[in-house]
Specification:
The complex is a heterodimer of chains A (313) and B (546). Chain A has 313 residues and is an alpha/beta fold. Chain A has 16 helices and 9 strands. Classes of the chains: A alpha/beta (313), B alpha+beta (546).
């Protein structure tokens, strides 16, 4: 056994975790991810390695809002996350090389760390007309996803687009946009939102990498720690809802008093997310606090199912 | 015949972009710009509630977040024929101003800087010398010898880990890089600081905008942040604004000037010919007359003659784009019928249409805004532009270049940031006088048309709506990056970036730093590998992944 693995084993034992327990962890993680049993030793190796875990970020039919959202993390700061904790080996928005040199980075990450890299995806995949509506380096998004995703240790979909289709899949879905799971056939952990709160993205990634534990997910693949409760059940204005105190207009005495936005179209009662609890941008605010109804952006097909957005439920 | 170089993907932009150039005698002799992603927002908008348009169009981009929502509400405000209350206009301007501050900071440090700065060279720097240079460049804190030693050690440790992440396979050591190691270390230190500052600057938008990215307090008729009109929230916004302006004044602007000093020859590279601005930041309900940045057009670099803008002269061409037909249409009558038949730079090669103004390609963005403001005698613009030209010792002609475009971005950040203080005070005055109106109610008409013209970080942005039976009948967006990075039109005139790239030196086609320098100066919002094509054999060297 190598020195690093020996030391890791010792550290685990000091904490009362036997090697058997550790391998059991990895088996559970692997099963939860729907991976074959052959992946178990690979997860064990990835977690025990002193190397920073490699991450490949693929961007498809997206607006880059999810990447920008991740940049807002302050626990840890983004520079700590991508330089000290992870090894972000491919991300088109911030990587230094372009073209062939960038393709080399992707190729190296996927082959050298095959089976060990985390694949994060934002944006959905257009599949109509052989996928010509989205291409990188002469290949379709679909081709790239089919080559890369199956080789990942895990696939994390950030944003409603990669998780469920999102904006490009909005009716009439002119490009045949699909979620990663649907287009590629790999099972994914989904962190939806438009964009998601970085607290939820980071919480999932760092929790998994530091503690070797995948968060429990709901039937839509969403971590329960973030998406286990309705927005409505965490909303600061809930008591107004219960008392029938509604704002009838954005310019009203009721609006100024922070009454419930149900009559202005709020979709909080049908939306699972933790926006009221953790808020955005270091706890600064969230839509209802800003006086605007929730639009349900972490729900699949919300663009069609929960619109018109100003029409009450 | 020259060598063809294809760069796909262009990284450090928003979206998916492919650039092909022809290189002859070490310089670019021809260029073609292709967007390789199509989503079809304009198709999806049809038949929906016009009030929802801003929520949907905001998702055109998460880097230029907010600006489409702003264009959309203004467009529909116009269609339903209302003027928003003063406070709504001020709050919309404040959030927009915050977006400029955030966007331009991130652009310079995290999208553009690596074209000018060699990170690996920073490892060779002398921290003591770096501290001395820093003290000559500005008053910024965190600029002592220990600060630079820390940054250098952090970079060393990172490189020694063998996992170079986003810095792997960069063009380090290219002869195109001209900064001494100490300036590279200074820039690297600021790159890291800016990564944290941007999170705090984005918080400004969340104070009145509920969250960033994708603020959610705009509506047709005004804004919704009724419970944020108080001293605490305004003070919170002001505190974050002050912190950001300290960074703009002490780090960003001095860095751009310092770096420019080593790249003065780039005052002759990357220029275009015509400029367009719709103008922005209305100071009263009189738009565009009260705009901080005026509306106007400049042709053939003639700053002294700023022409008025007639929207009827805008057409979008599809002759070289993947859409049906060849006709050029005004946006109000625009169609979006995608038709892909392969990438051929001689025929059709982009998902972008080619906007033209009176048949001419127009550069939009910071340089256009600053030149038009300068040409119209705007004091702040004249002072900052003349100041920087003097500091660098370069003539006015240097403005028409990649360097000019990059400097204009920094200068307008300061101009807008400085103006925001007055807007905050105006909001305070209104509230003190008992005016807390933020929303004007309206009736949705059965039919109507509206136009929303804005100037947002990347340039002139227009939204057009036609309402039919109270729903969206037609909706078209003409986006700044379409102006700047669109393909040829029916007359075969190249778009701005295609024109700007001509004459760009290429020291090494496999390390296309110079090409990226100019492409990135447009701050592209779109998206694209280097394939070297031998025109004799038509053989393409393909690099397969896996």
């Amino acid at each position: 056994m190598s020195d690093d693995k020996k030391r890791f084993g010792e550290r685990l034992e000091q904490r009362g975790v036997s090697r058997r327990d550790f391998m059991k962890f990895c088996t559970i993680v692997s099963a939860t991810m729907g991976l074959a049993p052959s992946f178990v030793p690979k997860i064990a190796e990835a977690l025990a390695s002193p190397q920073r875990p490699p991450v490949v970020w693929l961007s498809f039919a997206e607006c880059t809002g999810c990447t920008e959202a991740l940049l807002r993390t302050t626990y840890p700061w983004i520079d700590t996350l991508v330089l000290d904790i992870l090894s972000l080996d491919y991300h088109e928005t911030i990587m230094a090389p372009s073209g062939e040199a960038a393709e080399k980075s992707l190729h190296e990450a996927v082959t050298q760390h095959s089976g060990k890299f985390i694949c994060v995806v934002d944006g959905s995949i257009p599949t109509a007309d052989n996928g010509v509506y989205g291409m990188i380096g002469g290949k379709t998004f679909l081709e790239i996803a089919k080559e890369v995703c199956p080789k990942a240790l895990a696939v994390l979909c950030v944003g409603t687009c990669s998780a469920y289709g999102g904006v490009p899949a909005m009716a009439p879905n002119p490009t045949g946009a699909k979620s990663i799971q649907e287009a590629v056939g790999v099972s994914t952990v989904n962190i939806p939102g438009c964009p998601p709160n970085p607290i939820n993205m980071v919480g999932t990634i760092v929790n998994y990498l530091l503690f070797g534990k995948l968060p429990d997910v709901d039937q839509l693949g969403r971590p329960l720690f973030a998406y286990g409760k309705l927005v409505h059940d965490q909303c600061q204005r809930r008591s107004h809802f219960e008392m029938g105190e509604f704002a009838p207009s954005f310019q009203s005495d009721e609006a100024q008093r922070g009454f419930c936005l149900y009559e202005l179209g709020c979709k909080g009662p049908e939306t699972y997310n933790n926006c009221p609890s953790v808020k955005f941008n270091d706890g600064t605010s969230w839509p209802v606090e800003g006086g605007h109804p929730c639009i349900g952006c972490s729900e699949p097909n919300f663009w069609d199912k929960l619109s018109p957005f100003y029409k009450p439920l | 015949m020259g060598q063809r170089v294809v760069i796909d993907p262009i990284t450090r932009i928003e979206g998916h972009l492919r650039i092909e150039v022809e290189v002859a005698n070490g310089k670019v002799s021809n260029a073609w710009s292709s967007s390789t992603l199509f989503r079809g927002l304009e198709i999806m908008l049809k038949g929906r509630d016009p009030r929802d348009a801003q929520l949907i169009t905001q998702r055109a981009c998460g880097v230029c977040t907010y600006v489409h929502a702003l264009a959309s509400v203004r467009c529909v405000d116009d269609a339903v024929k209302i003027t928003v209350p003063n406070n709504a206009r001020i709050i919309r301007n404040l959030i927009h101003g915050a977006q400029f501050l955030h966007d331009h900071l991130v652009h310079f440090y995290h999208l553009h800087a690596l074209d000018w700065v060699d990170i690996v060279s920073a490892l060779q720097a002398d921290p003591q010398k770096t501290a001395k240079i820093a003290s000559e460049v500005s008053q910024a804190g965190m600029s002592g010898v220990n600060d630079f030693k820390d940054v250098q050690n952090r970079l060393k440790k990172f490189v020694e880990s063998g996992q170079l992440g986003i810095f792997a396979n960069g063009y380090w050591g290219s002869p195109a890089y001209k900064l001494p190691p100490e300036v590279n270390l200074l820039a690297a230190s600021h790159y890291l600081q800016a990564l944290r500052q941007q999170a705090r600057t984005a918080r400004m938008m969340a104070v009145f905008g509920a969250k960033n990215p994708h603020p959610q307090t705009l509506v047709v008729g005004g804004v919704t942040c009724a419970t944020d009109l108080n001293a605490e929230r305004i003070a919170e916004f002001k505190y974050l604004w002050q912190e950001t302006m300290d960074f703009v004044n002490n780090v960003y602007v001095p860095d751009v000037v310092a770096v420019a000093g080593f790249y003065k020859d780039w005052g002759n590279i990357g220029g275009t010919t015509n400029f367009l601005a719709y103008g922005e930041f209305p100071q009263s309900e009189k738009e565009p007359d009260s705009n901080l940045f005026p509306r106007g057009a400049i042709f053939k670099r003639n700053i002294g003659q700023v022409a008025p803008v007639d929207i009827a002269l805008i057409e979008e061409h599809v002759k070289h784009s993947w859409y049906e037909g060849d006709q050029a249409l005004p946006p109000a009558k625009g169609e979006t019928k995608p038709k892909y038949d392969g990438l051929d730079v001689e025929k059709r090669y982009s998902w972008m249409k080619a906007p033209r103004y009176n048949g001419e390609p127009m550069e939009v963005g910071p340089l256009a805004r600053v030149l038009i403001a300068y040409g119209k005698g705007n004091e702040a613009a004249k002072k900052s532009v003349d100041g920087v030209l003097k500091q660098l010792g370069v003539p006015t002609e240097a403005l028409f270049s990649t360097l000019g475009r990059t400097a204009a971005r920094a200068l307008e950040t300061k101009i807008i940031g400085d103006a925001m203080e007055g807007w905050m005070m105006q909001l305070v005055e209104n509230l003190k006088n008992g005016d807390n109106k933020i929303y004007q109610s309206f009736e949705m008409p059965d039919s109507g048309t509206g136009t929303g013209l804005n100037d947002v970080p990347r340039g002139a942005l227009g939204h057009w709506i036609e309402i039919k039976d109270k729903k969206i009948g037609n909706y078209q967006l003409v986006v700044p990056s379409t102006w700047n990075l669109g393909p040829r039109c029916a007359a075969g005139k190249p778009g701005p970036v295609e024109e700007a790239l001509i004459g760009t030196p290429v020291s090494d086609p496999k390390r296309p730093v110079e090409i990226l320098r100019t492409v990135h100066s447009f701050d592209p919002c779109i998206a694209c590998g280097v394939h070297v094509i031998d025109p004799q054999t038509n053989e393409i060297h393909k690099f397969r992944v896996v």
